[in-house]
Amino acid sequence: MKIGVLASGGGTNLQALLDAQISGALAPGQIVVVGVNVEGCGALDRAQKAEVPTFCLSHKGFADRSAFDAALAAELGRFDVQCLVLAGFMRILTPGFLESFDHGVINIHPALLPAFPGIHAQKQAFDYGVKFAGCTVHYVDGGVDSGPIIAQAVVPVLPDDTEESLQQRILGQEHKLFPATVQQVAAGRVSRVGRKVFLNSK
Protein backbone atom coordinates (compact mmCIF):
# COMPACT_ATOMS: atom_id res chain seq x y z
CA MET A 1 0.00 0.00 0.00
CA LYS A 2 1.34 3.42 -0.97
CA ILE A 3 1.27 5.73 2.04
CA GLY A 4 1.58 9.51 2.03
CA VAL A 5 2.37 11.44 5.21
CA LEU A 6 1.56 15.09 5.95
CA ALA A 7 3.23 17.02 8.77
CA SER A 8 3.70 20.58 9.97
CA GLY A 9 6.17 20.42 12.84
CA GLY A 10 9.13 18.58 14.30
CA GLY A 11 8.06 15.22 12.97
CA THR A 12 8.72 12.81 15.84
CA ASN A 13 5.71 10.68 14.86
CA LEU A 14 6.90 10.80 11.26
CA GLN A 15 10.28 9.55 12.49
CA ALA A 16 8.58 6.62 14.22
CA LEU A 17 6.90 5.74 10.92
CA LEU A 18 10.16 6.10 8.98
CA ASP A 19 12.01 3.93 11.52
CA ALA A 20 9.31 1.26 11.17
CA GLN A 21 9.67 1.38 7.41
CA ILE A 22 13.46 1.01 7.60
CA SER A 23 13.12 -2.02 9.90
CA GLY A 24 10.45 -3.62 7.73
CA ALA A 25 7.77 -3.21 10.41
CA LEU A 26 5.54 -1.10 8.17
CA ALA A 27 5.27 -3.67 5.35
CA PRO A 28 3.29 -4.09 3.22
CA GLY A 29 2.90 -0.35 3.64
CA GLN A 30 5.44 1.96 2.05
CA ILE A 31 5.81 5.70 2.61
CA VAL A 32 6.12 7.09 -0.92
CA VAL A 33 6.01 10.83 -0.13
CA VAL A 34 6.04 13.26 2.79
CA GLY A 35 4.38 16.64 2.39
CA VAL A 36 4.63 19.65 4.69
CA ASN A 37 3.00 23.07 4.75
CA VAL A 38 5.73 24.82 6.77
CA GLU A 39 9.08 25.52 5.15
CA GLY A 40 12.10 24.29 7.07
CA CYS A 41 10.11 22.24 9.60
CA GLY A 42 11.79 19.28 11.27
CA ALA A 43 9.54 16.77 9.53
CA LEU A 44 10.87 17.85 6.14
CA ASP A 45 14.45 17.32 7.29
CA ARG A 46 13.63 13.88 8.71
CA ALA A 47 12.04 12.72 5.47
CA GLN A 48 14.91 14.01 3.36
CA LYS A 49 17.45 12.22 5.57
CA ALA A 50 15.46 9.01 5.08
CA GLU A 51 15.58 9.63 1.30
CA VAL A 52 11.80 9.72 0.99
CA PRO A 53 10.42 12.08 -1.70
CA THR A 54 9.08 15.33 -0.23
CA PHE A 55 7.18 18.46 -1.15
CA CYS A 56 6.40 21.71 0.64
CA LEU A 57 3.09 23.42 -0.10
CA SER A 58 2.32 26.46 2.04
CA HIS A 59 -1.36 27.04 2.74
CA LYS A 60 -0.71 30.78 2.89
CA GLY A 61 -0.65 31.12 -0.89
CA PHE A 62 -4.27 30.00 -1.34
CA ALA A 63 -7.53 31.92 -1.10
CA ASP A 64 -9.35 29.25 0.90
CA ARG A 65 -9.17 25.71 2.26
CA SER A 66 -10.72 24.17 -0.83
CA ALA A 67 -8.10 25.66 -3.13
CA PHE A 68 -5.26 24.50 -0.88
CA ASP A 69 -6.74 21.03 -0.54
CA ALA A 70 -7.11 20.72 -4.31
CA ALA A 71 -3.43 21.54 -4.79
CA LEU A 72 -2.51 19.16 -1.96
CA ALA A 73 -4.52 16.33 -3.52
CA ALA A 74 -2.79 16.95 -6.85
CA GLU A 75 0.66 16.67 -5.24
CA LEU A 76 -0.25 13.44 -3.46
CA GLY A 77 -1.87 12.11 -6.62
CA ARG A 78 1.47 12.27 -8.41
CA PHE A 79 2.61 9.49 -6.07
CA ASP A 80 -0.59 7.41 -6.31
CA VAL A 81 -1.12 7.68 -2.55
CA GLN A 82 -3.71 5.13 -1.38
CA CYS A 83 -3.69 5.90 2.34
CA LEU A 84 -2.88 9.30 3.85
CA VAL A 85 -1.41 9.62 7.33
CA LEU A 86 -1.38 12.85 9.32
CA ALA A 87 1.64 13.12 11.63
CA GLY A 88 1.16 16.48 13.29
CA PHE A 89 -0.42 18.17 10.29
CA MET A 90 -2.01 21.33 11.67
CA ARG A 91 -4.73 21.92 9.09
CA ILE A 92 -8.39 20.94 8.98
CA LEU A 93 -9.07 19.17 5.68
CA THR A 94 -12.21 19.50 3.57
CA PRO A 95 -14.60 16.53 3.12
CA GLY A 96 -13.91 16.38 -0.61
CA PHE A 97 -10.20 16.01 0.02
CA LEU A 98 -10.76 13.25 2.57
CA GLU A 99 -12.62 11.20 -0.03
CA SER A 100 -9.59 11.20 -2.37
CA PHE A 101 -7.89 8.17 -0.81
CA ASP A 102 -9.07 4.59 -1.22
CA HIS A 103 -7.94 3.55 2.25
CA GLY A 104 -8.83 6.75 4.06
CA VAL A 105 -6.99 9.38 6.06
CA ILE A 106 -5.54 8.44 9.46
CA ASN A 107 -4.50 10.72 12.31
CA ILE A 108 -3.02 10.33 15.78
CA HIS A 109 -4.26 12.45 18.67
CA PRO A 110 -2.65 12.73 22.14
CA ALA A 111 -5.78 11.94 24.16
CA LEU A 112 -8.29 9.17 24.66
CA LEU A 113 -10.93 10.36 22.23
CA PRO A 114 -13.71 11.31 22.32
CA ALA A 115 -12.36 13.13 25.39
CA PHE A 116 -10.21 16.22 24.84
CA PRO A 117 -10.30 16.82 21.10
CA GLY A 118 -8.51 19.77 19.51
CA ILE A 119 -5.24 21.42 20.46
CA HIS A 120 -3.39 21.12 23.78
CA ALA A 121 -5.09 17.81 24.54
CA GLN A 122 -2.50 16.77 27.12
CA LYS A 123 -2.97 20.04 28.99
CA GLN A 124 -6.75 19.61 28.84
CA ALA A 125 -6.45 16.15 30.38
CA PHE A 126 -3.94 17.26 33.02
CA ASP A 127 -5.99 20.31 34.03
CA TYR A 128 -9.17 18.21 34.23
CA GLY A 129 -7.47 15.89 36.71
CA VAL A 130 -8.01 12.58 34.91
CA LYS A 131 -6.42 9.42 36.28
CA PHE A 132 -5.74 8.02 32.82
CA ALA A 133 -4.69 9.74 29.61
CA GLY A 134 -3.31 8.32 26.37
CA CYS A 135 -3.44 8.55 22.60
CA THR A 136 -5.81 7.58 19.80
CA VAL A 137 -5.34 6.60 16.16
CA HIS A 138 -8.49 7.39 14.20
CA TYR A 139 -9.88 7.93 10.74
CA VAL A 140 -10.30 11.58 9.85
CA ASP A 141 -13.73 12.99 9.02
CA GLY A 142 -15.00 16.52 8.53
CA GLY A 143 -14.93 17.35 12.24
CA VAL A 144 -12.11 17.99 14.72
CA ASP A 145 -10.74 14.65 16.00
CA SER A 146 -14.21 13.18 15.61
CA GLY A 147 -13.61 10.29 13.19
CA PRO A 148 -13.99 6.57 13.90
CA ILE A 149 -11.42 5.22 16.38
CA ILE A 150 -9.03 2.49 15.23
CA ALA A 151 -6.75 2.00 18.26
CA GLN A 152 -5.86 3.56 21.61
CA ALA A 153 -3.09 3.32 24.19
CA VAL A 154 -3.66 4.21 27.84
CA VAL A 155 -1.17 6.12 29.99
CA PRO A 156 -1.79 6.39 33.74
CA VAL A 157 -1.41 9.83 35.29
CA LEU A 158 1.10 9.52 38.11
CA PRO A 159 0.87 11.48 41.40
CA ASP A 160 4.06 13.41 40.65
CA ASP A 161 3.30 14.05 36.96
CA THR A 162 3.66 17.48 35.47
CA GLU A 163 2.01 18.49 32.23
CA GLU A 164 5.39 18.06 30.52
CA SER A 165 6.15 14.61 31.95
CA LEU A 166 2.67 13.37 31.03
CA GLN A 167 3.08 14.75 27.53
CA GLN A 168 6.37 12.91 27.07
CA ARG A 169 4.98 9.58 28.26
CA ILE A 170 1.98 9.93 25.96
CA LEU A 171 4.36 10.71 23.10
CA GLY A 172 6.30 7.54 23.83
CA GLN A 173 3.10 5.55 23.38
CA GLU A 174 2.26 7.45 20.19
CA HIS A 175 5.58 6.35 18.69
CA LYS A 176 4.64 2.70 19.30
CA LEU A 177 0.92 2.79 18.50
CA PHE A 178 1.03 4.86 15.32
CA PRO A 179 3.37 2.69 13.17
CA ALA A 180 1.75 -0.52 14.45
CA THR A 181 -1.73 0.72 13.52
CA VAL A 182 -0.68 2.04 10.11
CA GLN A 183 0.88 -1.36 9.40
CA GLN A 184 -2.39 -3.07 10.33
CA VAL A 185 -4.27 -0.82 7.92
CA ALA A 186 -1.72 -1.50 5.16
CA ALA A 187 -2.01 -5.23 5.76
CA GLY A 188 -5.79 -5.13 5.33
CA ARG A 189 -6.52 -5.99 8.96
CA VAL A 190 -8.64 -2.87 9.50
CA SER A 191 -11.98 -2.35 7.79
CA ARG A 192 -14.54 0.39 8.20
CA VAL A 193 -18.29 0.43 7.63
CA GLY A 194 -19.70 3.87 8.31
CA ARG A 195 -18.45 4.87 11.76
CA LYS A 196 -17.71 1.30 12.82
CA VAL A 197 -14.13 -0.04 12.62
CA PHE A 198 -13.42 -3.76 12.55
CA LEU A 199 -10.12 -5.52 13.20
CA ASN A 200 -9.51 -8.96 11.73
CA SER A 201 -6.73 -11.55 11.72
CA LYS A 202 -6.41 -11.65 7.94
Tally the helices: what do you get? Answer: 6
In terms of structural class, how would the helical and strand content be classed? alpha/beta
In angstroms, what separates the terminal alpha carbons? 15 Å
Second CATH tier, the architecture: 3-Layer(aba) Sandwich
Which shape, going by the Cα principal axes?
A: globular
H and E order = EHEHEHEHEHEEHEE
**CATH domain fold name:** Rossmann fold
Whole-number mean pLDDT: 95
Q: Name the CATH superfamily assignment.
A: Formyl transferase, N-terminal domain
Major β-sheet, in short? 7 strands, mixed
- Determine the fraction of residues in helical runs and give it as a percent range: 25-40%
Low-confidence stretches: none
Strand content: 15-25%
Count structural domains. 1
- Strand tally is 9
